[in-house]
Amino acid sequence: MTATSISGYIDQYDGDVRQRLLAVYDMIRSAVPDGAEESISWRMPTFKLGTEPLFFFTGTKQHIGFYPTPDAIEHFSAELADYGTTGHAIKLPHKTPLPTELIREIIAWRVQQLPSGGA
Q1: Among 74, 69, 65, residue whose Cα is nearest residue 44
Q2: Which domain CATH number covers 52?
Q3: What are the residues whose beta carbons fall under 8 Å from the beta carbon of 34, sequence distance 6 or more?
C-alpha cells in the first residue's frame, strides 16, 4: 500500500514505531507556519512552504529518519553527536528515547530560518 497522506503513512505502522512517528508529526505540525503543506514526497511524510521543503520524516525497523535540511544538521552537529547523521538525515534509534526537546529545538531553528522568520 502506498500512502497518500501523512496520517495514512503513519497508520501503516504499529506499536512504538507508530507512536514515535505520531510524536514527530505532532511536533512538526504544531510549529510550522500557517500555509505549510503536508504531503507524501519521496515516499516520506513531508512539510513544505510553497516550494521550500521544511521537513521530511520516515519510519524504519531500526529508527525514525528525520530530515530537517542539511543546514539544520550542521547547526546542531554537536547536539547530534550521539545520533547517526548524514548530510540530510538524522537517525533516531528506536532503542533510545525520542529526544523530543532536541527535535523541538531543531524544528524551531529551521522555521526561524525561513525568509519570513516563520511568520
Answers
A1: 65
A2: 3.90.1150.200
A3: none
Question: pTM for the complete prediction?
Answer: 0.92
Distance CA 36, CA 53 (A): 9
For 36-77, write each residue's pLDDT tens digit.
999 999 999 999 998 889 999 999 999 999 999 999 999 999
Cα(42)–Cα(63) distance, rounded to whole angstroms? 18
SS3 4: coil
Q: Is 63 within the bounds of a domain? A: yes
Domain count, the chain: 1
For the four alpha carbons of 21, 77, 47 and 36, in that order, the dihedral sign comes to: positive
Grid cell listed for 96: 533510545
